[in-house]
Amino acid sequence: MARLPRLTLPGYPHHVIQRGNNRQPIVLNDADRHMLLELIWENARKHQVALHAWVLMDNHFHLLLTPETPDGVPLMMQAIGRRYVRYFNAQHGRTGTLWEGRYKSTLVQTERYLLACMAYLDLNPVRAGMVAEPATYAWSSHRHYIGQAHDRRITPHPLYWSLGNTPFAREAAYADMVHSGLTTQQQEAITGAALHGWALGEPAFVQELQKQTDRRVSKAKPGRPTSKPSLGE
Hints:
By secondary structure, the chain is α+β, with helices and mostly antiparallel strands. Helices cover 42% and strands 11% of the residues. The C terminus is likely disordered.
C-alpha cells in the first residue's frame, strides 16, 4: 500500500516526531543535543516555522511547530536530517543512516489539543521512566514555560498567553496543567494521530480540514471505498 503524503498546511500547529533507526540512539552526549537543537532552531527560522515546544529523547525527538508556508516543515526537517546525520557520523566514526525513515507529522486543532500536545511532550521523559517530574529533565521546553529557564528558540503560541495576564500566572497555570497530566483519551488520541499522520481534533475540525486538501486526513471508514471519494468524506 502506498504511503500517504504527509499533511502540512500553513497556519496550523504540527506535531512532528523523528525517530532513530531501529530505536538506536540519535544523541550520545550533550554536545550532540546542543548541535541538534541549534539545527532545529536555525532551520525553523530559515524556513519560517515557529517552534512552540520540543523534547529530545535518547532515540527520538518531538517538535510542536506552526509553519508560515506550505513547505516550511518539510524543508526544515529535510535540512535538519541531512546536516545532523553528517555531523553525527563524523563525530562518532560511523556511516549510514541514522533515522527510521521519514519523520511523522500530524496537524493539531489548536483549541482542543495544542496545550495537551505541549504537556504530552513535557511528560515524555516521565512516561519513559527517566525522571519523576518533567521539571527535572533538562532537554525539553518545559522549564521555559514554567519560568525556570529562558529558551530563545521558543515562540509561544497565542493560546499559551491566554493562560494568564502575567508571566507568573501563565507559568503557574501551565505547571498545574502538566502536573495534572493527560487523560487516557487525550494520550491515545495524540499518540494515534502522530503514528498514522491523521489530523488531531474534533470531527468538525477534521471535516473542515479535509476541504482544504485532497489528502485523506482521518482514518477511512470500514468497507469498500468508493472509486472517487469527495473531499468532504
